[in-house]
Amino acid sequence: MIENKKELIDGIALKIEGLISAKDIVSNDFTESYHNISKTIPFEKKMPTFIDDVFSKNILVADENFGFASSKELPAFSLYRHGVKAVIAKSFFSGFYKNAFNIGLLCLYANTDYIDDGDELSINLRLGFIQNHTKLLGIKVKPTKKYFYNLYINGGLINTIIKEVQNV
Amino acid sequence: MKGTIFEKIIKQHSSNAENVVSDEVISIRIDNLLLPDNCVMPIFELLEYTKIKPVHKNIYVALTNFHYQYEQNYSINQRKIIDYAKKYNFQVLENHKGIWNINLLELNKIASGSTFLVRDSTVNFFAPLNNLNISSGIQDLFKSITTGYHDYLIPEIIKVNLEGTIQPNINGKNIALLLKKELSSLTQHRPYLIEFSGALLPKLTANDLFTLSLHHYTMNRAAFMFPPLPQFNNLKNGVYPDADAEYSKIFNFDLSKTTPLIDVNGYISEVTEISGEKIDKVYIGNSVGGLLDDLEFLAKILSKHKVSVPTYIIPASTKILEQAVVKDYIRPIIEAGCTLITPATGLCSAINDIIPVAGEKILATGYNDLSVQVREIIKDFYNCSIDTAVATAIKGEITTLNQLVRSIEG
User: Fold this and answer.
1) Do A99 and B41 touch (CB under 8 A)?
2) Which CATH class is domain A5-167?
3) Which one of B221, B254, B287 terminates a domain?
4) % of chain B residues with pLDDT over 70
5) Which of A29, A144, A152 to mutate to test the interface with B (most CBs of B within 10 A)?
6) How far is B299 from chain A, CA to nearest CA, in Å?
7) What ipTM, to 2 d.p.?
8) To the nearest whole angstrom, how far is the Cα of B51 from the nearest Cα of chain A?
9) Which residues contact B400 (CB under 8 A, 6 or more apart)?
10) Is residue A160 within a helix (H) or strand (E), and if so which, with residue range?
11) Does B146 sit within 8 Å of A69, measured CB to CB?
12) pLDDT value, residue B362
């Protein structure tokens, strides 16, 4: 039985093609600094329509090694802050993957060839399954490790630490 | 990864690491932490907000020159950072003293077999010291500050064996460029860590090894590890791999026939293939090419030749600059027509205080990847060793040191 609402996510796919580096997500030309987080715009150069698109399409769908080339949290944080509910990709750069869960952004490994831009999706995290309502397909998700699952459910690492401290 | 240096250090730092397997998360004790100033304010704010007290004792804060990032109120932020650092007993590494890696190295705080967590992947600079360096985001740093531990996502372990005897004009930069070229296929989906081995390692200088380590940037941010080496006096107390250690892949390189290499906008070729191309400006230092032996080398060459294009020299730290002045390395550099730039942490592609003009062809010795921060306004970016850089500065066009010597003698 599903107990946590965070395990069920409905949304529309926003598909981005090709290899996506951390710098494609948040341009390094401007800043890597946390001080300017409010000024960062995801995919400012790669997908200038992102800010408008993400209002209606909030499940980002990508290809291989998503978010490579940076261990900083800014790319994941910027996506999360601008309303991305989850990222589905064939694979993730480990730094991006860990930072995403650290801030409470869900990342799922799945074959994204079966998802096109604008497809209507339902993610069932508990069952490890994505329903593509547009294509009438079920897509298997690589099981999320318990460590990362807990981070996501708790709302990220800082919330987890605060809960642990409060429980002591 | 049984018997690897990596596995041994993980086991020494974890109470529940019986089976170290890639892709698993293991909680490890962190010995040293460094917070660059571009992430430290949110951490101080979190400490203030949560009232959770830091438990870690070895925390450093690196102040940097981030004015190129158009920070607003940057000096005000830095004063706040210094005040908070005092409150929480974090040690501040000041920006005007040079790049933080060198400043921390000069403090002699990073020991063999230790773990080091930083929000900056240049932490891999310390890899030749036979320790484990980890780059992470702010949330992971906060956890380590407040618990002393880090939840480490275990990478795949690959061995790179370096053999042979390198030619006199081949150094760490050329080895890094060669590995970038040959190991580009490793830009894959799983995180990996490279353990270096081989008879060549003890023959390299400390400068070569630090230079090679900084170039992990060019290899998918793989972390590096090295065995104990005589250059760092850690043969007795270091962590060695077992003779039958298990690696997921092994790559062997004989570097005896390696020639000077150059990276042009990400593509690596032999310098001789593009000899003769005109260059507008040359930058030598700070992270690569700014150590004391680099300045000694430059003084030796530039005492006999003048540069023919604008050439900027950036020592890696204030301490190195002071030593270079005492040893009279700076005078011949300036007399040859170079511009000396004061040491500072900042844009490590060695363009700290200079704004390149659009359309210029720039040659620098810094590690390549950071050059993308200014690449949009530069026509072509050339990245090479200090030997090739100084020869090119003298001739005004791409050339190896050997080619320059031959052309002068001829």
Assistant:
1) no
2) alpha beta
3) B254
4) 88
5) A29
6) 35
7) 0.90
8) 10
9) B169, B260, B271, B272, B275, B387, B388, B391
10) helix A157-167
11) no
12) 87
